[in-house]
From TrEMBL:
Pfam families: DUF72. Residues 257-280 are annotated as: Disordered. It comes from Thermomonospora echinospora. Coiled coil: none annotated. InterPro entries: DUF72, UPF0759_sf. This is Uncharacterized conserved protein YecE, DUF72 family. Residues 261-271 have a biased composition (Pro residues). Gene3D superfamilies: Protein of unknown function UPF0759.
Length: 280
């Protein structure tokens, strides 16, 4: 996401070399979804660059490749998994959790494959699983069995909250596109570990997005009081204002729990005159 075009020159300096964009993003937010790894395992040199651009306490939630989760459906993917784990080693402590996003066709009948896969994973990492089949949200027995699988290995259940998006018909092209692609699932809030992770998708209208996350701001304040360390990823269909919204969510949590430290001021998108390049 740190290369998202609408942010360049508005939130992030432009032009900016690709190997400096994450560094600039990290002045706005202290966590990022590693979604590109879903499509291909990155070169180790690329991951080394990510590590160089971020502090050791920066959080990467890195998605496992689709060859493991969607194509092989967690079985017979030992070689792909080894390659992926080797590639992300340079992140070190920045690898906050490895994100196992499962397809909507992954049903309660497949829980045995998930349980076996999670048990075989190295304990040197934390794991977070995103489920998209409705049975896990509507059938208490299926939800309970999934929770047992996850808690047995200390893994978290990642909710993807799209309820605000589907509250009323779309009003923009990006919202219409999201309606055709995003899962329509009930909101789920319980945390299984001390590191809950939430993905929230609002609307392109800022106030509707903010109104929709208020229950999460209450939940995050409670989690922090309980000694947990939660991570929130804020999205909108076009993501144009996502950086600003992420910081606004942080401020909403601070309004409920003032002892939470403020985020540092982000680097300006436009360099000062002394820093701007000249011909002479």
């Amino acid at each position: 996401m740190w290369t998202h075009a609408p942010w360049q020159g508005r939130f992030l300096p432009h032009p900016l070399p690709p190997k400096e964009r994450l560094r600039s993003y990290a002045t706005w937010c202290n966590a990022v979804e590693g979604n590109t790894t879903f499509y291909a395992t990155p070169a180790r040199s690329t991951v080394e660059s990510w590590a160089r651009q971020t502090s050791p306490d920066f959080r990467f939630v890195v998605k496992l490749p689709r060859s493991i989760t969607h194509e092989r459906r967690l079985t017979g993917a030992e070689e792909e998994l080894r390659s992926f784990l080797t590639a992300i080693e340079p992140l070190g402590p920045r690898a906050h959790a490895l994100w196992v996003q499962l397809p909507g066709s992954f049903t309660p009948a497949d829980l045995g494959a998930l349980a076996g896969f999670l048990r075989r994973l190295p304990r040197s990492h934390r794991y977070a699983v995103e489920i998209r089949h409705r049975a896990f949200f509507e059938d208490p027995r299926s939800a309970r069995l999934l929770e047992q699988v996850l808690t047995g290995v200390g893994a978290e259940w990642v909710p993807f909250d799209t309820t605000v998006l589907f509250q009323s018909p779309p009003t923009s092209d990006s919202e219409r596109d999201a309606w055709t692609k995003k899962p329509r699932l009930p909101r789920r809030a319980p945390a299984l570990t001390d590191r809950p992770i939430v993905r929230y998708l609002g609307r392109d209208d800022t106030e509707r997005t903010v109104e929709g996350w208020r229950p999460w701001a209450d939940t995050f304040a409670r989690w922090l009081r309980e000694g947990r360390s939660p991570t929130m990823f804020v999205h909108t269909p076009d993501n144009a204002d996502a950086l600003m919204l992420a910081r606004r969510f942080h401020e909403d949590v601070r309004a409920r729990l003032p002892e939470v430290e403020p985020l540092p001021e982000p680097a300006p998108a436009t360099p000062s005159p002394a820093e701007q390049p000249t011909l002479f």
